[in-house]
Each structure stands twice: as C-alpha cells, then as structure tokens.
C-alpha cells in the first residue's frame, strides 16, 4: 500500500484554562490516502477544527506527530497545503481578481501563468463577471467561491476545508458541493473536509470519519463507495440514505453527550 | 453631498451676519468685510510670514504625531501583552488636559518654534496611537490565519494584510490627530511665540482688532474643515468596502 499523504499518530490537544487543563482532542490516529476526498463529522466542540488547524500547521499538537508527505509538521505551515475557512476570509480592500491571485503572486510563478490560472479559476468558480468587484458587493456564497479560487490557484496538493459552506443556505451548499467535486477531480488533490452536516459529508467524501464528543476521538471510518464522477444528484440514491443513516446512528449519542445531560 | 454643503456654508455666513448685527462691529466683523480683508491681507509678506510660521510648525507637529502615533499603535497593537500594558497609559494620557503641560513644554523647549511643534505633537500623537492600536486588535483573526496559510513573511503580513485591514480605522485616528494637532499648534502660538496665526490672534485681541481676529479665524476654519472633510470622505470610501 502507498505511503499515506497525511499521517497522524497519537495526536492530542490540551488547552490550558483557568480551571486546569482541558483535554480537547485525541489521541487521534489517522491516515489520509493521496488524492482521496476525506470528511470528518462530529458533534460541536469535539475538536474537529482543531484537528484541521494541526494539519495546517496553525496550531501545534500537545502530543503526537502529524506528517504531510512524510515530513513532520510543527508550528510552520507546510508548503503545498491550502485552507478554506468558514468565515469570510476575502481581503475587503482587494477586488476579486486581486484576492484570488494574492498568494499566487508571492510564489515563483511567471506573470502569464498567474493570468492563466486566474482565468481558469474565475471560469471554474463562475466568477468571470465579478473579477473587478469588491467582496462587499458579493453574496456569502460568492465570497466563499473567491476563497476557494484563491486556494485553488496555488495548486495545493492538500486542500483543507473548515466548514466552508457553514454560513450558506442549503441550495447553495449543494451546488457548491458539486463545484467542490469538480475541483477535486480537476486538481487530483487530497481533500479534507470538516463539517457538521452529515449529508454534505455523505455526498462528497470517499471516506467519512465520525468523531466522538470531547475529547474528540475517531469512532469509526465509513467508506461511502461512490464513484469518482458523482455529483449532488446522489442524494436521491437509496444508498445515500443508508450512508447518512449509518453516520447519524454513530453520531446521535455523541451529539447528545455534547449537549449535556437531558433536561 | 455638494448642495447641502453649500447650503450649510450659506447658513453659517447668514448666522455670522446676524450675530454681527446683534452684537455690533466691536465684537464681530461682518462676513463680507472679513473676506475682503483676508483677500487683501493674504498677498502681504507680513501675513504670509505668519501663515508660514504656523504652517511649518503644524506640518512638523502633524508629521511627528502621525509617525509617533503609528509606531506606538502598531508596536502595541501587534502584541496582546503590550496592549494590556500600554492601553491604560494611553487612555490616561489622553485625558490629561494638555494645556496643563504647557509650562513644562515651555521650560523644556523655550519660547518659539520647538515649543509650538512639541505642543502640537503631544495633542495629536495619542489619538493616532489609540486608533491604530485598536485597529490592529480589531482585525478579523481569519485574515491573519489566511496570511499564515499563504506563508507570508512577518513584514509582508504587516504591509499586505495588517495595514490595509486596519486602514479605515487608522484614518479615523489620523483625522482626530490632525484636528487636535492643529488645536495644539495654534494654542502653543497664543502664549509662547513671536509669530504665527495664534500669535496674531492674541495681539489682535489686545488691540481689539476684530477684523484681524475674524480673518485669521476664518482662515483656520476653512483649512481645518476642508482637510477634515477630505479625510472623512476618504474614510467613508474605505469603509464602504468592509
């Protein structure tokens, strides 16, 4: 079997608080295969965003190791990793085109190649008519597309998505899911999607990890078994219901735990 | 925007004329006469020397206030600990009536240009610092996380993310700093100077020359209001994007 693209061993995160140490996450052992679409679902507060931040090099683990392409990730952001956050991360003082090329212009990439990739990203994300617009003039879904495009143009080998559609309405989310699948197929990148939406995870991912309530651990990893050319229409497939049902079966008790004792 | 502005100016001139008619020419020179007098005075070398004295003192003071305020604000705003230490000092410093420090400034710098500049600058530096510091602290964390993900260097992060993100609020600080520095500079000239518009005002009061008083006041009002309005327009344009 090929070496995993991302490998986590005994990863733990403990936050110091006034009431003592808070064990937020772990120990987590997890391998991501190169080129797969992997989703993580879990009850709120289970540390799934923390998991992503540790892979992104934004927050070092308290214990354990994270490796990307065989190299240990410390507190530095590794090369070849792109992140899309839930919040609007567009730079409000730059127009759409300048937002998209912001990171790219800092890489050793020729000018005409920057223009080519910008054009490709504008087309793929349906932003061609808005290249000169400022983020404040766009809807939430459009702004998130700008952030996805900004990540995509740097051609990351690993794309981390932290609840990227959390602030969007259901229809927009389904359509953005399709765009995400197109992008994944077009780039061949490994994708890690953190989400609280079971249907989103079930529809998009090859494999879905279900996390427990805090301290978050991986309870089970479910193979969805979709073909690579899937799209949002699989929500009407009976197998889709079976996958979401299985995910909810695992998550229900954890979500109850996360809510606290029943009234 | 343009029509209401013209209307406000017209109303102010009418108010001025009204007060003149009520209070009499010994208290207030009328608008038209003042404008004519100012027009006649502006080309004279004596008047220009006063404008130059105030203008150069103010330019220097405002440059010091902005540079100092930005430096203090950025240095403290970038660190949680520094903010916690310096913010109470700045807020306390802001509440000190600066005029109380005037004797000390005079003792330190003597009568003349350096005292004017120093007195102007101490008025402006604190608001610029406070607004810059708060602007740095108010930046959405996700923008800084994005910068980290793009592997920006520290300098690039400050220049390309922090400053543009903080700019609207910094401009508010600059606007405040501008007005207060002008107040400080003119105030400094009133008591410890031998030239400048503040000095001119004080000598005119002694001679009860209402024409000079109103002409100098009009000049200062037009300058202050003009620059302040331009800065406000710039600030609004920046904020419309956030």
Structure description:
The complex is a heterodimer of chains A (263) and B (242). The radius of gyration of chain A is 19 Å and the shape is globular. Helix content of chain A is 33%, strand content 24%. In chain A, helix 3 runs antiparallel to helix 4 (140-152) and helix 6 (198-204) packs across helix 7 (238-259). Chain A has 7 helices and 10 strands. Chain A starts with 5 loop residues before the first strand and ends with a helix. In chain A, a hairpin with a 2-residue loop joins strand 1 (6-17) and strand 2 (20-32). Chain A has 263 residues and is of the alpha/beta class. With 242 residues, chain B is an all-alpha fold. Chain B has one domain (51-241): MetI-like (MetI-like fold, Orthogonal Bundle), CATH 1.10.3720. Chain B is 84% helix and 0% strand. Chain B contains 10 helices and no strands. Chain B has helices spanning 2-23, 31-41, 45-77, 80-95, 102-109, 113-137, 141-149, 154-191, 197-207, 210-239. Chain B is globular. The A-B interface holds A 56-58, 77, 79, 81-83, 85, 87-89, 91-94, 102-103, 106, 134-136, 154 and B 140, 142-143, 145-146, 148-152, 156, 160-161, 164-165, 167, 238, 240-242.
Reconstruct the topology from this structure.
The complex is a heterodimer of chains A (263) and B (242).
Chain A: E1 6-17, E2 20-32, E3 37-41, H1 48-55, E4 63-68, E5 71-72, E6 81-84, H2 96-101, H3 111-124, H4 140-152, E7 158-162, H5 170-187, E8 190-195, H6 198-204, E9 207-211, E10 218-223, H7 238-259
Parallel strand pairs in A: 3-8, 3-9, 6-7, 7-8
Antiparallel strand pairs in A: 1-2, 1-4, 4-5, 9-10
Chain B: H1 2-23, H2 31-41, H3 45-77, H4 80-95, H5 102-109, H6 113-137, H7 141-149, H8 154-191, H9 197-207, H10 210-239
